[in-house]
Amino acid sequence: MTHFRPFSPEELKFVSSFKRGELVVEAGAMILAEGAHSAQLFTILSGWAFRFKTLEDGRRQILNYSLPGDLIGLQGSIIGAMEHSVEALSPVVLCVFQRDRMPDLFRNQPGLSFDITWLASREERMLDENLLSVGRRSALERAAYLVAFLYQRAAAVGLTGQKALLIPITQQHVADTLGLSIVHTNKTLRKLVERKLIRWHDRACEVLDPRGLMELAAWEGLPETRRPLI
Amino acid sequence: MTHFRPFSPEELKFVSSFKRGELVVEAGAMILAEGAHSAQLFTILSGWAFRFKTLEDGRRQILNYSLPGDLIGLQGSIIGAMEHSVEALSPVVLCVFQRDRMPDLFRNQPGLSFDITWLASREERMLDENLLSVGRRSALERAAYLVAFLYQRAAAVGLTGQKALLIPITQQHVADTLGLSIVHTNKTLRKLVERKLIRWHDRACEVLDPRGLMELAAWEGLPETRRPLI
DNA sequence: CGTCGGTTTGATCTAGTTCAACCGCCGTGG
DNA sequence: CCACGGCGGTTGAACTAGATCAAACCGACG
User: Fold this and answer.
1) Nearest in space to A230 (alpha carbons), one of A39, A46, A69
2) Measuring from the CA of residue A203 to each C1', which nucleotide is nearest?
3) Residue A181 CB closer than 7 angstroms to strand D?
4) Closest Cα to residue B118, out of A106, A71, A230, A5?
5) CA-to-CA distance for B36 and B39, rounded, in angstroms?
6) Which of residues 161-180 of A touch strand C (CB under 7 A)?
7) B13 touches chain A (CB under 8 A)
8) Is residue B54 within 8 Å of B114, Cβ to Cβ?
9) With helix as H, strand as E and coil as C, how does chain A read?
């Protein structure tokens, strides 16, 4: 795992003891629900998930996606209650942590505390970018940005290996991420297909030309540095 | 300051030594610019500011607002580079911290470390809410949400005293927050005025009916708890 | 073989954009 | 003292990106 920063032996020991077990959920399963008070804290070991909020009348907004190495439920662990839900996009393997040992972690593991803050800041940066996109980019730019963004994140955790990367999302997910209707999302994605930037599969998106997508969206990409892993 | 959690004497001592000085900037001044590598870390002591990103062609998206007690430049301090800019909306007094003492803080001040993470999580939650708004609410709902949101935040730091609260923003700021054009923003705000939910002043917004705004936006408000202060 | 979720396509409609003025206020310079 | 320019706000008209409505297709699956 060359993508992550190395641990000290002591940190490793703490993380092991912090870990309570593993959890496997199938695609489409709810990992955390909005309003859950005693939310748990997880790390993704493998698979894709997404965070979202809904309005009373059912309108849904996808806030961000979670990939291996990302924390799930941090807001709940730090502030107390979850204000969003998390759902699995693919089969997901989670590492379950003991939430009540958070204070211990902050007291005795400054390195890990910093890592958690680092991950929170990174999430914030991604949200900034998504907000810019939804607020100010056109439908075509938004779609291009989203796919390029997901491609980069997948690449950053080594998911873009020998065989082509398939992002496990439906067009409904894309629509709910971009703030568009499904119909218009479909028409927009077709344009990306026509331009040979992506290929659309059954319920998945294949990225053909990441550079072309970034250019279309006028997006420079995440300045990805060595990241912490918890 | 009943809104904030109390400090231990030792924490107080650390914060004092962490503080390097104060900085006063006038309305409209840039506090931090995107791309600044050696970004500083601030807390707002008084005044309003906003964070934003821009696309190459000038399209601007306001990401969030900063009020007294909020950290500015945390992303830069934790990850290294600023990916957004911050500008003052009113005269702002800042408390300047020594960025290079962050490691010391994490090593020796678990309480403060936790507070920083808490603030980062809160920022994330606000961004989630803003993203939901921009992505899925209508123009009228968005505008109502924004004003109610800013009102609540101002109230949470005691800005809503005896005399009416004036939020120091122009309609251009509102437009760039909501992802709308100025023209349509103007027409939308007029509707809020007609409904007697707000009053518009020279370059400021007065909130007349916070509850009515929240209802219109179908927004429950921030579940505001006792917050940390740094 | 029917049904259902995901995708596709065309037609119509509308929320929000763009264009174009204009107003009032204020600070600046002649 | 006044003319001028710029910024913030306002308003109407024309336009368009994207929404909504409607229907059909397609593969998987019971």
Assistant:
1) A69
2) C6
3) yes
4) A106
5) 6
6) 170-172
7) no
8) no
9) CCCECCCCHHHHHHHHHHEEEEEEECCCCEEECCCCCCCCEEEEEECCEEEEEECCCCCEEEEEEECCCCEECHHHHHHCCCCCEEEECCCEEEEEECHHHHHHHHHHCHHHHHHHHHHHHHHHHHHHHHHHHHHHCCHHHHHHHHHHHHHHHHHHCCCCCCCCCEECCCHHHHHHHHCCCHHHHHHHHHHHHHCCCEEEECCEEEECCHHHHHHHHCCCCCCCCCECCC
Structure tokens at A108: 């005795």
Which residues neighbour A192 within 8 Å (Cβ) at sequence distance 6 or greater? A140, A143, A144, A147, A198, A213
CB atoms within 10 A of CB B204: 15
A106 CB neighbours in chain B (<8 A) are: 110-111, 113-114, 117
Nearest to A23 by CA among A59, A58, A47: A47
- CB B140 under 7 Å to nucleic chain C: yes
Q: How many CB atoms lie within 10 A of CB A196?
A: 10
Q: Is A28 exposed, middle or buried (0-12, 13-18, 19+ CB in 10 A)?
A: exposed
Instruction: Per residue of chain B (230 residues), give pLDDT as tens.
Output: 667 888 899 999 999 999 999 999 999 999 999 987 767 899 999 999 999 999 999 999 999 999 999 999 999 989 888 999 999 999 999 999 988 899 999 999 999 999 999 999 999 999 999 999 999 999 999 999 999 999 999 999 999 887 889 999 999 999 999 999 999 999 999 999 999 999 999 999 999 999 999 999 999 998 877 777 77
> What is the nearest nucleotide to B172, using C1' and CA?
D8
A206 strand-pairing partners? A166, A199
Q: What's the pTM value of the predicted model, to 2 decimals?
A: 0.96
Per the CB < 8 A criterion, the answer to whether A140 and B137 are in contact is no
Tally Cβ neighbours within 10 Å of residue B107.
14
CA nearest B228: which of B40, B19, B12, B16?
Answer: B12
